[in-house]
Amino acid sequence: VALALGGMRHAAVETVPPPALLQLARDEVERSLDDPALTPGVVAQRVGISTRYLHRLFSDAGPSFGRWVLARRLERSDLALADPARAHWTIAQVAFEHGFTDPSYFARTYKARYGMTPRERRADTLNRGGRPRT
Fold first, then answer.
1. Which residues contact 28 (CB under 8 A, 6 or more apart)?
2. Spatial CA neighbour of 80 closest among 28, 132, 134, 29
3. What is the distance between the alpha carbons of residues 132 and 124, in angstroms, rounded to a whole number?
4. DSSP state of 1
5. Where are the alpha helices (H) located in the chain, listed in sequence order?
6. Among 11, 13, 83, 107, which residue has the least CB neighbours within 10 Å?
7. Radius of gyration (Cα) for the chain, nearest Å?
8. How far apart are CA 126 and CA 134, in angstroms?
């Protein structure tokens, strides 16, 4: 019975157009961005496709799975750093809350993306009275 149901689920996924499958995968990632154990295999399994196909969906649409996840985590982290209600959070806490496991890696990738360190971002926002940069 389990094999039959698994086969039916896979057959149903095969009828879904690739853009819709990509959106399902992205939605799954969005729900799990704060989980540092999020992997392509986990997302693929939850969507009902192979890991290889998941990678192909992402690469056909733009950035790879890993780059897309990193970009989304950095975007969410940036919003947290700009949020005056979270000004009491440490930079490491912001990193951990958004799926990063290494605060120094977070700081390096954040600076590469935004041209300033997370600490500079927070100071810039607080100096503007909590208003986001433009």
1. 43, 46, 47
2. 132
3. 9
4. -
5. 2-14, 18-32, 40-47, 51-61, 65-82, 91-97, 103-114, 118-127
6. 11
7. 18
8. 14
- State pLDDT tens for residues 38-84: 999 999 999 999 999 999 999 999 999 999 999 999 999 999 999 99
pTM of the full predicted structure?
Answer: 0.83
Distance CA 60, CA 46 (A): 20
- If you search the block for the tokens 């698994």, which residue do you land on? 6
- Long-range contacts (CB closer than 8 Å, 24 or more residues apart) made by 57-63: 57/18, 57/21, 57/22, 57/25, 58/22, 58/25, 60/18, 61/19, 61/22
